[in-house]
Fold this sequence. Notes:
The protein is built from 9 helices and 12 strands. By secondary structure, the chain is α/β, with parallel strands linked by helices. A hairpin with a 2-residue loop joins strand 2 (47-50) and strand 3.
Amino acid sequence: MAVPQKYRQLGDFWRYYTGQKTAPILTIVIGGNHEASNYFWELYHGGWLAPNIYFLGHAGCVQVNGLRIAGASGIYKGHDFRLGHYERLPYDHGSMRSIYHIREYNVRRLSLLSSPHIFLSHDWPCTIEKYGNLPGLLRRKPFFRSDIENGRLGSPPLMGLLMTLRPRWWFAAHLHVRFEGVVKHESGEHEESCQEQSNPDEIAIDFDENEPASIPAPGLAQNPDEIILDDELDPPAPAPLLHVAPVVEKTCTHKHQSETRFLALDKCLPRRDFLEVHPPSSLSRLLSIDLL
């Protein structure tokens, strides 16, 4: 796990991983930059981490009661983006970090999806700060200013995905601050390869809340909340100006969502904005679907 030595202690997740405890509700997760990546690698394409805890993989999409949820694990580093996964176990100092750097291959795969209702990422999409209260963000995190001015805050490939997929909601984390924004998309019809009938290859997770599911941008050193790793002290590689677009033939017409609501939450500490609850009734109104 790529964290300083003081954080390398066993918490309580092992009880869920071994089945001693079970998550009370279905929990869908992605990976960030401080996880045990060797265990995530065993579920590269997604799968059950523990009873009632489902990992979306390095890039994945599932359907839960009609709600399509897609996600991308890891963070963006330009020098690894266009490479394949060359890491081999046991990971050394470098591969322990490069293993969680998002790759172009996975971004391209996600770009072929039809619009999900929700997208999950650890990194923020690059320039997303311009779609919310930027002055308020800089008052709380003044050390973001340099990265924002130089276009280094967040992930350029993820902004390309946001503009291509146009999900209704985009949830993120990583920068340890609550921030929300709204991206307005151009109106009109957008062509994409899709079908209105159900996709026979899509992963559908059956969920009954009364019955558990069965098992089948680098921060700066001034940020007091950031965990700084040795490799993050090096100057970042130039970010490619990448707008991801599907590379398949367009066969039908589909109206995309006119806006994407972005929400990032803070780190899990007392008196911090790390949790928000949207009951099914409010999600149903926001997403215009029936949640059973």
